[in-house]
Each structure stands twice: as C-alpha cells, then as structure tokens.
Amino acid sequence: MKLPAILWLSILFILPARGYDPMSVAAGGKGEPLDFTVSDAGRQRELPIRVYLPTGKAPAPVVLFSHGLGGSRENNPYLGRHWSGRGNAVVFVQHPGSDESVWKGVAPLRLPTALKQAASGQNLLLRVADIPAVLDQLERWQAETGHALQGRLDLKRVGMSGHSFGAVTTQAVSGQSLPAGGARFTDPRIRAAIAMSPSVPAVGDAGRAFGAVKIPWLLMTGTADVARIGGTTLGPADVASRLAVYPALPEGDKYELVLEGAAHHAFGDRALPGEGAGRNPNHHRVILALSTAFWDAYLRDDPAAKAWLQGDGARSVLEAGDRWQRK
Q: CB 3.0–4.6 Å: which of 35, 66, 278, 308 could bond 169 by disulfide?
C-alpha cells in the first residue's frame, strides 16, 4: 500500500523525536563502579577517580565529572548510574586540596575559614590541570593489555561536567578564559560540557571570558541556587552570577535550565549542612533527562536526541515554573 506523503513525513521526522526516551536504561546497565588512582608524577599529585562502565565491551563515550568544594569521587552516583546505563563511561575525578579533606576532622568553628581558603585560585589551577592528567592516563589504560579499562573508552567522544567548584573547573577546561591575563586551559579533546551551578569570574568582563566558547554547553541552575561559601576569589556564588553566564555565551548549541525553587544541593544526592532537607523529586528527573539527551546529541551525534532536546520533548519533563532556553 502506498502511504500519503504527509504520513511519510510523520514517520521520518515526528515519530523518532517522540519515540526518543532519555530516561530508559539498558538492562543490567547500573553495575558497581571501579575505583582507580591517577598518579601525576610531574606534579607529585595522586588523583582518586571512580568509573561507571556501561554494559557490553565496545568503546564508550567518556563523560568526566568534577565535584564541588569539599566533595569526592563518591558524589552524584545518580548521574554515574544513569549516564553509564545509557552507554557512557562516566569518570568522577577527585581533586585533592578542595575535596573532602577540607572538612574531615576540622572543628565546626574552623570550617567556614577552611572552606573559603580551599575555594582559591590556586586550587582552581590544580583542578584544571587534573583533567588533562586524567584524560592522558585514560588513554594509557585504554591501550594497556589486561587493564579493566582496556578497549572500553572512546576518547574521541569526551564530555566534561561538574557542579559548583566543579562547574568552574568545567568552564575553564571547556572554553572559558580565566581572569589572570585571559589564560585559557581548554582541552581540545572535550566535545561538549555541562555546568551545574555555573558562575561568572570574580573580575573582568563575562562576555570576554565566555566569548570564545566553541563547543556545546548546557548550563543548569535554580532560582535558589546560592552556595554557603561566597565572595571568594572564584567569584560570587549567588543566583545572579549563575544566570549571567548564559547571556555571555556566543550562539550555537548553548542551553540553559533554571529549576524553580532548586537550591544548591538540588544537583547532588543529599542536602548540604544548613540547606535543609527539602527537595523536589522532579528536579533529578529533569537533570537526568536533559543531560542524557545532551550527551546523546553531542557525543553520539544522535539526531533524535537533538530533536527531543530542541523540541517539545525537553519541555515535557519540566514543571510550570522551570525555564528552558537555547541559542
């Protein structure tokens, strides 16, 4: 039977976008993570990492994640499990000096000072050098006979992501210039980036800092996204700073999500001290759906994922007060 032309158009263009589901995962695709240590001999620096591998043996796109101030490789397992269940090798990088060592064993009265000291430009520079060090080691392990990661990583398809201090780290290795002399630490291996709780630099012009970002970026924040430690050399940690990043980005595959009522801890698995326990369960659903479609679109070149992301699919997971835009 010969189908009408309009029906063929529906099959070719409408059904694939509607049929795309970023929340489905492969059976058995949420296995236990593997822990390793990257030794950066040149800097005498040991970097703990945690890797969530997908099912199967084929090389998988690699997604890196950088934790926030005081975090560790154990943070955000909901992202690791879901992204790996979608076929990605997810690598959580721990940054000594701005990780959990900042607060472990520290007296409560000393904690605010310890956190502010750790949120420093020096630690940012250490972090931005951690990312290429990890990628270099992953390349070696990918080729190392008998290693658990041998043949499992597609390092031509690398995504970078992070939350809070990890978002600042993500920005710095994905195209932003830093205030000190306009220095750039962009790693050309990174094809796309997601910054959760992003921020503009403490000094300098935001347009100049972000004007040369060439790869796709997805920004995620909330209307109550304020960090406890603000006013550091890294820049303000308030909602205005979060929202100032998107307008400073050039056009071309740039996205912004603003979750109504989402606080700083909404992107993690538990509330931070002093933030309370309130949580909208739909926030994680939105974060997972949009981030997954973004990785599928820009690491896998999946046209159905891009159509979902840029069409009604993305808005279908949002609540009334959430904001979503792209340019």
A: 66
